[in-house]
Amino acid sequence: MTKQPNPTLKAILEYGPLVAFFIAYLKLKDEIFTIGGTDYQGFIVVTAGFIPLFLISTGLLWKLTGHLSRMQAVTAVLIVVFGGLSVWFNDERFFKMKPTLIYLLFGGILGFGLMRGESYLKSVMEGLMPLKHDGWMILTKRVAGLFIALAVLNETIWRTMDTETWVYFKTFGLPAAIFLFFMFQTKLFQTYSIAETKEGDEDAG
């Protein structure tokens, strides 16, 4: 059963690890840590700390809400896998690839659903905004396109720019892009909202 936790606490658990990663990176980015005879850059050490922090936050969020979406579960797995690979091989590229793979995976899943005439996005977000079927299909196409675009953008930035630029992009750019995307979907929500349709029918009657 899904519970409704305090919104502030929920936001802290969702975004706290990312903010902590950003702050820790700024403090340790120029440091070199020698562990077991191997030198690790600050980015790798911060990544190693981010993994358990993210898992703890996700676990607390699960306990508070009684629910963990497939998207959250997949994200947690990929963070462990690719963050772990970065630490194990002492190579930051694995962790930088992680957003690319997440967005490609989610975009691909949504695209597969669309080919079957279904909106998998509906099963994740229906409780937040009830829409008619056509609305869900249009929104799903747009979100799938967004995910593919973000995957390409992430690859471009980490491969062509320095690590600090990528960290700023990961911390602020990606969330801002998703926020702005949904802000620009207002007309779609108004047009296909079930609540709006019912209200219109009542007025007509």
Automatic annotation (TrEMBL):
Locations listed in the record: Cell inner membrane
Pfam family, one: IspA
Membrane topology label: Multi-pass membrane protein
Assigned GO CC terms: plasma membrane
InterPro entries, per database record: YciB (IPR006008)
Keywords for the protein's UniProt record, in alphabetical order: Cell inner membrane, Cell membrane, Membrane, Transmembrane, Transmembrane helix
Taxonomy, superkingdom: Bacteria
Primary localisation category: membrane
Transmembrane intervals: 12-28, 40-61, 73-89, 101-121, 142-161, 167-184
HAMAP family attached to this UniProt entry: YciB (MF_00189)
Matching PANTHER family: INNER MEMBRANE-SPANNING PROTEIN YCIB, INTRACELLULAR SEPTATION PROTEIN A-RELATED
Function per UniProt: Plays a role in cell envelope biogenesis, maintenance of cell envelope integrity and membrane homeostasis.
Similarity annotation: Belongs to the YciB family.
Protein name: Inner membrane-spanning protein YciB
Provenance organism: Pelagimonas varians
Taxonomic lineage: Bacteria, Pseudomonadati, Pseudomonadota, Alphaproteobacteria, Rhodobacterales
